[in-house]
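Colleagues,

For the teaching module next term, I've prepared a clean inverse folding example: a structure given as tokens, and then the sequence designed for it. I'd like students to try predicting residues themselves before seeing the answer, so please don't circulate the second half yet.
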């Protein structure tokens, strides 16, 4: 397999007409033929070594890209299938492709990527990635850990997880999770992570692995839980109103039967309880027509009326319960403390931030217009390379701000030491390069620079300062 030739994009003899859809399509096919995953890994590895990026924590996640139109069937068995699947874009009507990323916690730099069929599940993807990482982690000169969401943790993947150091959210579908959270809420052994977050540690054996489970609760999670419970209470209240309407329209042979029907109705209520109930009797007389005072009663039917009120105890319990989540790991406490485990899991936002970058309308890739699956795979690889460049640049910028003890303005003109690269690009808008010809000689002048822009440009080093014709400090 021939190596790709890397040549400068902009040089003498290169003009815009060369960047037409035919050359772009053929280039994407060359990228696919070389190996999209291999090429990205080679580039990322070199950059990680050059930049000194910490690769201990490897954050795994997936996203889907919705595609419109018909696609030429691919004869290559290795090419992905563009098909319908679970859409994270909330567009189940469109076919899609799935992109898997493994990024560093240090800067969110992607160093592993893979394209998948549109109907591939996270459970399948995470299991295969765990299998692939076992040998890599064992050969690594320093400990490396896999961080992912709850789709990583299931019984079929347990054999792989035993060979890895993993940090993951334990899925709420496990009954044991509810028991662990209840145990934490009823106990008084919470420890403080910071002013707004606390955690409860439990050591256990699950799926044949000795693990630490950390029940985490925060003020922000509590506020979200309160909003969720409030909406659920309102939905349940509306449903109860309809249920009671139909119940009150029924007639029962005995008072006990009416009370039993009300109890059956109220049993599944999660946020309400019966406040009071009254029974009214309806006599059925012998014969037809209007009964006389002396007409004997043939039978009595009972009707029940009920008033409902919120169950404050259940509401408080469910709110506290929903404000908790469980992070599990098999890494020994001597290697990573509880605090480091929780911070590492929260670093999962790095992968999600990468997907936001790729799907940002300013990036202009919300719609993919290539027609062959192999070209789509090549384009997804090029997009990941753009994320690689962006994340490394943003990391350099933030490191320089921290090293120099400086800050920049955020979107509301408040100082921040962690600006996003997108916002920095917006701050740099309005800079112009003007070419002036004097006595037959051309001179380039930079116009439109303000103090904030000069401050930002100086963070990128002397070469950038020279290009923008400013002093390095």
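(Answer key — instructors only)
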């Amino acid at each position: 397999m021939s190596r790709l030739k890397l040549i400068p994009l902009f040089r003498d003899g290169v003009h815009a007409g060369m960047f037409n859809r035919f050359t772009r399509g053929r280039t994407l096919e060359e990228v696919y033929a070389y190996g999209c995953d291999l090429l990205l890994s080679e580039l990322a590895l070199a950059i990680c070594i050059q930049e000194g990026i910490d690769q201990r924590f490897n954050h795994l996640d997936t996203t889907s890209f919705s595609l419109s139109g018909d696609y030429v069937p691919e004869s290559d068995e290795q090419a992905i299938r563009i098909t319908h699947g679970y859409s994270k874009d909330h567009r189940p009507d469109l076919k899609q492709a799935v992109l898997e990323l493994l990024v560093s916690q240090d800067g969110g730099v992607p160093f592993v990527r893979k394209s998948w069929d549109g109907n591939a599940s996270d459970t399948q993807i995470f299991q295969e990635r765990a299998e692939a990482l076992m040998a890599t982690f064992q050969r690594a000169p320093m400990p490396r850990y896999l961080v992912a969401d709850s789709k990583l943790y299931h019984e079929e993947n347990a054999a792989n997880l035993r060979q890895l150091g993993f940090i993951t959210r334990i899925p709420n579908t496990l009954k044991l999770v509810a028991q662990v959270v209840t145990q934490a809420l009823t106990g008084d052994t919470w420890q403080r992570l910071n002013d707004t977050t606390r955690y409860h540690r439990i050591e256990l054996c699950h799926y044949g692995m000795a693990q630490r489970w950390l029940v985490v609760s925060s003020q922000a999670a509590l506020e979200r839980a309160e909003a969720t419970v409030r909406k659920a209470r309102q939905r349940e209240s509306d449903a109860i109103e309809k249920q009671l309407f139909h119940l009150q329209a029924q007639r029962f042979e005995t008072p006990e039967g009416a009370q039993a029907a009300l109890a059956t109705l109220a049993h599944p209520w999660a946020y309400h309880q019966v406040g009071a109930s009254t029974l009214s009797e309806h006599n059925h007389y012998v014969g037809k027509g209007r009964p006389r005072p002396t007409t004997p009663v043939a039978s009595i039917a009972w009707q029940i009326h009920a008033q409902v009120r919120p169950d404050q105890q259940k509401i408080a319990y469910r709110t506290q319960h929903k404000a908790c989540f469980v992070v599990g790991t098999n890494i020994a406490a001597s290697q990573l403390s509880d605090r480091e485990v929780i911070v590492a899991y929260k670093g999962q936002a790095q992968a999600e931030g990468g997907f936001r970058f790729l799907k940002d309308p300013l990036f202009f890739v919300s719609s993919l217009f290539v027609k062959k699956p192999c070209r789509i795979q090549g384009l997804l690889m090029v997009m990941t390379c753009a994320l690689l460049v962006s994340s490394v640049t943003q990391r350099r910028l933030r490191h320089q701000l921290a090293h120099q003890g400086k800050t920049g303005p955020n979107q509301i003109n408040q100082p921040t030491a962690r600006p996003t690269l997108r916002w920095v690009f917006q701050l740099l808008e309005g800079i112009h390069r003007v070419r002036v010809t004097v006595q037959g000689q051309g001179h380039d002048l930079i116009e439109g620079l303000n103090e904030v822009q000069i401050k930002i440009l100086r963070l990128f080093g002397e070469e950038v300062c020279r290009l923008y014709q400013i002093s390095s400090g």
